[in-house]
Design a protein that fits this description.
Distance between the termini: 11 Å
Number of strands: 4
Structural class: alpha+beta
Strand content: 25-35%
Order of helices and strands: HHEEEE
CATH architecture: Roll
Number of domains: 1
Strand order of the largest sheet: 1-2-3-4
CATH class: Alpha Beta
Length: 105
């Protein structure tokens, strides 16, 4: 598994302040995200970009995308590698309407 995908898996289930070694590690509560709060979605994307830079600073082509799926009442997150001619998905996660996150295969 890609190191970025591993870090995303861990971060999805960790809130800031829960790890002693790095209190800034983790992602905020997801409750506001799936209900379309754009500020919360932008804050999450910013934290994910920081996570990606911290895990893989040597890979500047990585991009974080967040797409709100209103029909499924879910937020889909993707980390893409755009350093090549075609984008390659590194990891994808879904946060459902209950705020439960899962890393998609």
């Amino acid at each position: 598994m890609d190191p970025v995908a591993r870090a995303l898996r861990l971060a999805l289930h960790t809130r800031p302040g829960e790890t002693l070694g790095d209190p800034s590690f983790g992602l905020p509560c997801f409750a506001d995200l799936v209900h379309g709060d754009r500020r919360a979605i932008h804050a999450l994307k910013a934290q994910l970009r920081g996570l990606v830079r911290g895990v893989a600073p040597e890979r500047p082509g990585l991009e974080v995308r967040a797409v709100l799926d209103r029909e499924a009442a879910a937020l889909r997150l993707e980390i893409l590698d755009r350093s090549g001619p075609e984008p390659v998905r590194i990891a994808r996660a879904t946060i459902n309407a209950l705020g439960i996150a899962s890393l998609d295969d």
